[in-house]
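Take a look at the protein record below and flag anything odd:
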Amino acid sequence: MARHEVSQAFELKATGDRMPVVFNQPVEEKDVASTDKFGSDDIPGYTDADRKQMCRMGKKQELRRNFRIISTIGFTTCVMGTWEILLTANSQGLTAGGLAGLFWSLVWCYIGQFFVVMSLAEMASMAPTAGGQYRTLLTIAAVIGIAAFNVFAAKHLPLAQGIFATVHVFAFVPVIVCLWVLTPTKQTAAAVFTQITDNGAGWPTPGGALMVGQLSAIYLFCIDDISDALSSATGFPFIYVFQNATGTTAGTTGFVIVILVLLVMITISALASTSRQTFAFARDNGLPFSKWLGAVNSRFRIPVNSVIFITFFTIGLSLINIGSTVAFNAMLSLSTTALMATYVISIGCVTLKRVRKESLPTAQWSLGRAGLPINCIALLYAIWSFFWSFWPNSYHITATNFNWVSVLFVGLMGISGLLFVFRARHIYEGPVAKVVPMEVVESEMAA
């Protein structure tokens, strides 16, 4: 096969089990126009398999891939945050649903997310790129420090993730054991597992309170009084629990410092992930200033511009809190709604292709025959969560407790729609349009 043939984009149209290739349009010089499309040999940190996968998707290997299985698990563990996030962000669940409501919502969310993650893992295996599925002074200092780590210490990120994962796991046991041993008054099993309560949300039925509070369990046993925990002067129920357990300011401070250190580790992973996704979207011309955002620094082999953008964007969001806490919380809540929307769209597309019995791109980790039922369950959960994410936490609506996500989401989608119609649809190059059969890639690399 002639070398220039591989330098064209491919459109895969499924017909039964066959996937004929239709040549579509030339690919830009930077992607696969020359032998450099496989990535320069002087850039360490990737294998021939990495280069083949990138070429199959019409992309050039630019980033250093120095994560291995252990560091990848550590990175994923830190990004999820699991018990740290549950510990520090549970006010909504405790208010609307109480102890039992929070517990069973957590069980339901873990089950639903399990199927979502399996579906996304298969899609990530089909296209293993960086894109995925598409207070103030202290906050600014922390963000800048985290950004600096992601730039200047990026090559040490795998080692750091291994350390983070170790601390994440081994800090869990002493925190929970101390809470269990030191808390003077504990809740009964019946209160934790069976008594769904409304603690200020005002919904006419416990079921309604449970539905809007599902978006937050030894910890639950250690909350002796939910009302006191929610109205604590600290502003955080988890600090109230530590204070109640230790009985001292020093002990409470020690526990809080441990949690803050873990949250900083989580934020480092989150910034790394978000900057890579921004880079990947910009590389496909899906964002304004794509050329700048999609650039890779030749010295550090990472998308430094994307890291800088995400850093200043985060600082900008933190400044909103000075003017309006309501607006700030609305912006944070928008992330959950937008995340569920991406799940619905991406998993929905794969589900539709499976229903139509159309072929999917080759994946090293495939769901096989279980793909359709797993995708359907994941899609139902994502739609369910997306629907409830628009609801207010309180039944009696005011300007303060209203869920402004509905307004923000519709406005954001409207702006995005206009941007697509007038600009992006003319220049956006989605990853699917450039998929090349692996046998063609292997033949090209062997030539």
The first strand starts at residue 8 and ends at 12. Residues 1-42 have pLDDT under 50 and may be disordered. Residues 1-65+434-447 form one domain.
